[in-house]
Amino acid sequence: MSRFLNSKYCELEAYTPGEQPTDMKYIKLNTNESPYPPSQSVLDAVNSEAVSILNLYSDPTCKSLKAAIADLFSKRPENVFVSNGSDDILNFSFMAFCESAKRKVRFPEISYGFYSVYAELHGVEYTAVPLNDDFSINVKDYCHNDATVVIANPNAPTGLALMLDEVETIVKANPDQLVLIDEAYVDFGGESACGLTEKYDNLLVVGTFSKSRSLAGARLGYAIANKDIIADLEKIKYSTNPYNINRLTLLAGEAAVRDNKYYMDNCKRIIETREYTQKELVRLGFYVTDSKANFIFAKSDDIGGEELYTKLRARGILVRHFTKEKIKDFNRITVGTREQMQALLDAIREILEEKKNENS
Ligand code: PMP
């Protein structure tokens, strides 16, 4: 830390992103990316003459991309916001819709680690609400409160999803609070709340192109809400970085929206692979949650979470381990291709066998 840092950031503990190692080629099952490449039309779009005009700024209104997203979700462009990854939108939302002790924020204790970081960053008081023992969210905990509500649905890293009527109950019970539903993983078996944004002017749905749409490296997120909420987000964007989506990403995103079938077919394959892998893990003695996301949340009584993570890493397979007490026995395993998951299962079988032999 330099002596120049603003004192309000001295104690801030930054978010730790998943590893992106470059020392060797891993089977990467640690940051919930899609194992499938972008569609051909996305590749064509970014390989077009767009590259030759990178000397020019991108369109700050993102008109064409917003129109495509609006079409996809049957909304109007004024109901759509786009930004540099959904992390950016979450950050803007904490800036726009939370305020120190005046407008606090509530989110589940076990959820996306960035929520508490944004709260700290912007000096917002927050309540990390404990989950039920089975990791499910208790809907009542989010009703009739005096705080902005932020919920990942499906939740991460548990993979558990609220039903749409449960989300609606929360939105309805907080008419004077903003409810942000983070739908990063919704395309893998969740129910989107996008359809409710016309009915409720306090609902903000945030999504990403990083998971189901194979564009994690392009950095693109979107939000759907009432036009006044969108205008607030635009205000924050225009007060920080109006050109925050580059030309290539604008084109890639638009092509990806137009190629919806390719991505939804990939989601089906990922769901099938998830179900297969979960069954195999259960056969190996694991407990798995009922994940509706593109990852599996699993633990075994035969091996600790950290030990399994370390032994898989040594075999060239990366998964995500969290040190938080309540989930330290688990690993979060991104669903890759069937072949990648087969390699994972073979490695786990070997590790458990070795451990058995050590103990006998
Ligand atoms: N929300 C959740 C729940 C996530 O897990 C992630 C990915 N780490 C994000 C938002 C952010 O995704 P991105 O910034 O890549 O759009």
Describe the structure using short key phrases.
7-stranded mixed sheet, 360 residues, globular, binds 4'-deoxy-4'-aminopyridoxal-5'-phosphate
Estimate the mean pLDDT confidence. Answer: 97
Determine Rg (CA atoms, Å). 21 Å
Content of β-strand: 5-15%
Bound molecules: 4'-deoxy-4'-aminopyridoxal-5'-phosphate
Q: How would you explain this protein's 3D organization?
A:
The mean pLDDT is 97. The strands form three sheets. A seven-stranded mixed β-sheet has the order 2-8-7-6-5-3-4, sandwiched between helices. It has a three-stranded antiparallel β-sheet with strand order 9-10-12, covered by helices on one side. Strands 1-11 form a two-stranded parallel sheet. With 360 residues, it is α/β, with parallel strands linked by helices. Helix 5 (164-172) links the parallel strand 5 (147-152) and strand 6 (179-182). The chain has helices at 40-46, 63-72, 86-97, 114-121, 164-172, 227-238, 247-258, 260-283, 305-314, 338-359, and strands spanning 27-28, 80-83, 104-108, 126-129, 147-152, 179-182, 203-208, 221-225, 286-288, 295-300, 317-318, 330-334. 35% of the residues lie in helices and 14% in strands. Helix 1 (40-46) packs antiparallel against helix 7, helix 3 crosses helix 4 and helix 3 (86-97) packs across helix 6. It is globular, with a radius of gyration of 21 Å. The structure holds 4'-deoxy-4'-aminopyridoxal-5'-phosphate.
